[in-house]
Design brief:
Blueprint: H1 2-17, H2 23-35, H3 40-69, H4 76-83, H5 88-133, H6 138-146, H7 153-165, H8 170-181, H9 184-199, H10 203-259, H11 271-298, H12 305-322
Helix pairs in contact: 1-2, 3-5, 5-6, 5-10, 5-12, 6-7, 7-8, 8-9, 9-10, 10-11, 10-12, 11-12
């Protein structure tokens, strides 16, 4: 999988030199996302656009409601009538999902980029060790390695060699290199390399042992994810079961009670009120279930936003159709 991802990146880098067209343009766009981290300004623009899309969805539902009911738009009464009806809840649900969709894509590709960087570190360290074996200095080894392809880490490696050739302090350049990459393994690797160069010793054995350490960390990460993946599927199944129970309750209990009120058992809310309540509970279950799946599978809660979008969107779509 790692070799496939790096090979795909190398192919796209070769396509960049040609005149891209059609699908190649789209592929090169994804490559630019993986090669360099998004700036804070671009992230803010993406998040603002996502919120704007959500607001547009709510306004579309509001305008449709006003046209059907024949009420004046943007009046206090029309707002109260719209948001007090069940008709507003599906639009609000889809607006929330649309607002979370693009941030989840950004987080997913940032994590994918970091994963590619971590997976390329062992090969980079082994190449540096081989260069040391031929008698090259550390700067020459870095310059030689910067001409090879290591995926997203290649550009940062070129910046590192350029800074060292310009006379930037070794420790300062390596620290900036690890900060630009921004992964935990890169920080640990940089710390080990700095300590080895400061204390002296055989850099070849240092690079080889560090590469083995990084490879073991990656294997432990992959093993942990494979072991926890079934628990993530449990969350998916439990969310779908929750939605199924909500549908059964509505059609077999609340709907008959609203059509034929019982003398002994009366529902304290209107049918629309129960529909809105059940819809909101299902949406909340999907969103928080997705965040839990991200925490279990990848160790970070916000990594589960993509699962929240899938589960919340599925729950909203199913209930909108079957209610």
């Amino acid at each position: 999988m790692v070799r496939f991802s790096l090979g795909w990146l190398n192919i796209l880098q070769k396509l960049r030199k040609a005149s891209p067209s059609g699908r190649d343009v789209l592929a090169l766009g994804w490559l630019s996302i993986l090669q360099k981290p998004l700036s804070f300004r671009i992230k803010v623009l993406i998040y603002a656009a996502s919120v704007a899309i959500g607001v547009i969805i709510i306004l579309f539902g509001y305008s449709s409601f006003c046209l059907k009911q024949g009420v004046i738009m943007f009046s206090p009464l029309s707002f109260v009538r719209f948001f007090s009806r069940y008709a507003a809840h599906p639009y609000i649900g889809f607006a929330i999902i649309a607002s979370l969709a693009m941030p989840s894509v950004v987080i997913h590709f940032e994590n994918w980029r970091k994963r590619l960087i971590d997976n390329a570190l062992p090969r980079l360290l082994e190449d540096l060790a081989e260069s040391q074996e031929t008698g090259m200095t550390l700067l020459q080894s870095l310059e030689e390695s910067s001409r090879r392809k290591y995926g997203p880490i290649t550009d940062e490696l070129k910046k590192l060699t350029a800074e060292l050739s310009w006379g930037v302090e070794f420790e300062k350049a390596f620290t900036a290199f690890s900060e630009r990459i921004g992964t935990e393994l890169s920080v640990r690797t940089t710390t080990l390399v700095l300590e080895a160069t400061t204390l002296g010793g055989d850099l070849k054995s240092t690079f080889n042992s560090t590469a083995e350490f990084v490879r073991q960390m990656i294997e432990l990460r992959d093993e942990r994810e494979s072991q926890l993946r079934p628990y993530m599927m449990v969350i998916y199944v439990s969310t779908l079961i929750f939605v199924l129970i909500v549908i059964i309750l509505y059609h077999s209990f609340f709907l008959p009670m609203a059509k034929e009120p019982s003398r002994f058992l009366k529902i304290p809310m209107s049918l629309e009120g129960y529909k809105a309540l059940l819809f909101d509970l299902s949406l909340i279950e999907g969103i928080f279930g997705g965040l839990t799946a991200g925490k279990i599978s990848e160790g970070l809660t916000f990594n589960g936003l993509k699962h929240s979008v899938v589960l919340g969107g599925a729950a909203s779509a199913i209930l909108t159709i079957l209610f």
